[in-house]
Design a protein that fits this description.
mainly alpha
């Protein structure tokens, strides 16, 4: 694909970019994934995004990162993960 192109595909699609055989050209990719509340993401954003950074983000971004539970699914110690963003105990 030419530089600046974008590709949108379903998660069920098998995909590959092939090996980058050039020595002076780099490829960059970005993945944005959204899932419904009752599914858990493949990547654990609780581990990959520092909680200090999450605390500075808008509420909707915090929810999309997985801090909003869906009913009883996604709770931490039988409570909403959102509590971790305001709890002083989570600083330890």
């Amino acid at each position: 694909m030419p530089a600046g192109s974008a590709l949108i595909y379903l998660g069920s699609t098998l995909h590959s970019g092939g090996a980058n055989t050039t020595t002076d050209i780099h490829r960059r990719g970005m993945f944005f994934g959204f899932v419904v509340g009752w599914l858990r993401t493949e990547e654990n954003t609780f581990l990959t995004v520092p909680i200090e950074a999450v605390r500075t983000m808008p509420l909707r971004v915090q929810e999309l990162l997985g801090y909003k539970p869906h009913g009883p699914i996604g709770v931490v110690d039988v409570g909403s993960p959102m509590a971790l963003l305001t709890s002083e105990a989570s600083l330890a």
